Amino acid sequence: MTENNRVLLVDDDCDLLSLLSIRLENGGYEPVRAESGEEALAQVELARPQAVITDLRMGGMDGMALADCIHRKNPALPVIILTAHGSIPDAVQATKNGVFAFLTKPYNSRELLSQLEKALRVSGICRDLEETTPESWREEIVTRSPLMEDLLSQARLVAESEASICLRGDSGTGKELLAKAIHKASPRSKQPFIAVNCAAIPELLLESELFGHAKGAFTGATRDHPGLFQAAHGGTLFLDEIGDMPVALQVKLLRALQEQQVRPVGNTSTVSVDVRIISATHKDLDAEVRDGNFREDLYYRLNVVILEIPSLAERREDILFLANHFLHTFRRGSKKNIRGFSAEAIELLVSAPWPGNVRQLCNVVEQTVVLSTTPIISAKLVKKALRQQSGQFPSFADARRQFEQEYLAGLLKITDGNVTRASRLARRNRTDFYKLLQRHTLDPADFKPAKSQ
């Protein structure tokens, strides 16, 4: 039996629970039993079932309440309700609450197995296709965290659709890795996956990179350039750090998504494109929309489905698991006989705050492997790597924010707090300059020279 066949059965009647278990085993499933709704909630976390079959009327928490609790944390987990007290209103209400199927007792075993098969198919776990479509789509994502497993279940479900997806999470959590996994699980998997970091390309070049340009469109344009939209035709375009895209370019992106056409810079004709958009950001886009930094119409175009990636601190059960995975990878490259981490080193790894998330953990493990001269990596090496990683690698957004603040403060010092002169030196209009000062909580009055007594 595999985890892909695991089904949680919930009923406060032990005899019926045993009978249902036998029928599911005969159908090729692995039943996990719970005799109450409260016990079932614990089993959802422990057993990680792929579907839940529950009685409606039970002492304590009933089947509807159980389904509601399950879907708050696991919206993609299908729930089938069985009851001897079924009625049309109950069935309608259950469907509205997200219950996959509502069957009355005495139930037909064939119908139950049919509904279960459909439930697994809808949730992205089709047993008939298990041999031809293994879990290779997510093989690069190393996890044993329930939070991540729930996220991957949702990702597998939305991969089948054409809906635009926005991935939200801190820097280093693996947004591009998840985007690639979604692409591999989608019908577009045979077509290109193209990734672009919107924050890493200067504004003047980003339009050309996305939409292409014609020969002679600007200085240095010595040939036609198709752009990334055309390169991703038929596949997936991953727009990382979409929250940093300039507002002027957001208008052109929205038009391209609405019309499914792009117009290369310097060209008068358009080119049809067929791409699935996955975007990502570490910013709060809702706040960016309120502040006028991100277009509301583009926001709704991109945020059809939102997937939140947990930070490494929220999935601490993965820290040692990931550390050993990276250790195995880097050990092969170094040709060192490193067997693992000391107990003190493990304690440091598991308890560290990890502001840089999985990317920082990977860097820490690589550094300790390079510097280790013993088979067991010491706590001293881990502590040194943690200190250096935390100090040397601020995020791009943090580094830019710090630079802007220091730059603006320097201008105000030079001009003695004169905003007109400071904005002229910065080559920004006065209104924009004031907005920048407000964003960084800088008051020009604080930079004016003190009046002599």
Automatic annotation (TrEMBL):
Residues where 4-aspartylphosphate is found: 55
Highest taxon listed in the record's lineage: Bacteria
Record keywords, A-Z: ATP-binding, DNA-binding, Nucleotide-binding, Phosphoprotein, Transcription, Transcription regulation
Domain Response regulatory: 6-120
Keyword ATP-binding part of the UniProt annotation: yes
Keyword Transcription: yes
Record GO terms (molecular function): ATP binding; DNA binding
Biological process (GO), any one: regulation of DNA-templated transcription
Boundaries of every Sigma-54 factor interaction domain copy: 141-370
Name listed for the protein in its UniProt record: Response regulator GlrR
